[in-house]
Amino acid sequence: MRAILFLRLIVSLTAICMFAATAVAGETLALCVEKADVRPWRTQDGGGLNIDLLNRVAGNLGLRFDYRGMPWKRCLAELKANAVAGAIGASFKADRLELAVYPGGNPPDASKRLNVDRYVVLRRKGAKVDWDGKAFSYLDGAVGIQLGYSVGDQLRAMGVKVDEGTQKGAELLHKLAAGRLAAAAMLDGEAVFVLDTNPALAAEIQILPQPLVEKPYFLVFSHEFARSQADLAGRIWQAIATVRNSAEYQKLERDAQAAMRN
């Protein structure tokens, strides 16, 4: 039921996004975005809260955003090559400063984030592996993540073996269910959605209660765009904060979160 409610909400958001994207006749900026479901923030079909927020920003500033879906690693490569103006949904990593400019620099200004999300740990039901919020216990194999996701660095820093051989969340959990991983780390909303829409997986896999990490996610700009259009970059980031804090958008976010949890 919650999956159906969420899908209805995403359809509504996508309609709003399509209207906003065609209603603005100003400058067009190319933004790459991972072609994957990261609910409720982004979906493969071009919907989600991040896109709704950015289209509101575009409307307020008289811009057009050209969204280009692609694998996340390619998106970062395009950003580094200045082939796109920005990338949607990047968490902060120090080594990404070589290819991206964050609002506020290093450390980034979290008030200008797109959203906050958290990673959760999943295991097969009955497995002994556990996560207490600080350390793993009974971890007897690799923790699976999606290809290129920043949580891999955190896990490696803890001495955890990481497997990033999958791109989609459902594929990752099928791999876990098949016993090819000891555990998995996924963004919370997507993990909930995948289990809610796959009863067979939900019968075998559980989400552990303690989150692995919580992070802000940003629209980041290429070095070329941030250098040549510094004023516009700053206005976009400020508009993101303004829209995100608006009562109308806050209600959309609450409704989306509730649809996924109820």
Describe this structure in words.
It is a single chain. This protein has 2 domains: 2-115 and 216-261, D-Maltodextrin-Binding Protein, domain 2; 118-213, D-Maltodextrin-Binding Protein, domain 2 (3-Layer(aba) Sandwich), CATH 3.40.190. It is α/β, with parallel strands linked by helices and 262 residues long. It has helices at 2-23, 49-61, 72-80, 151-157, 169-177, 188-196, 199-202, 223-228, 230-244, 247-261; strands at 27-34, 63-70, 86-90, 115-124, 130-131, 136-137, 143-146, 162-166, 183-187, 205-207, 213-221. Helix 1 packs parallel to helix 2 (49-61), helix 1 packs antiparallel against helix 10 and helix 2 crosses helix 9 (230-244). 42% of the residues lie in helices and 23% in strands. Mean pLDDT is 91; it is low at 1-25. It is built from 10 helices and 11 strands. The termini are close together.
How is the topology of this model organized?
Elements: H1 2-23, E1 27-34, H2 49-61, E2 63-70, H3 72-80, E3 86-90, E4 115-124, E5 130-131, E6 136-137, E7 143-146, H4 151-157, E8 162-166, H5 169-177, E9 183-187, H6 188-196, H7 199-202, E10 205-207, E11 213-221, H8 223-228, H9 230-244, H10 247-261
Parallel strand pairs: 1-2, 1-3, 7-8, 7-9
Antiparallel strand pairs: 3-11, 4-9, 4-10, 4-11, 5-6
Helix pairs in contact: 1-2, 1-10, 2-9
Summary keywords:
single chain, about 260 residues, alpha/beta, D-Maltodextrin-Binding Protein, domain 2, 9-stranded mixed β-sheet, two-stranded antiparallel ribbon, globular, disordered N terminus
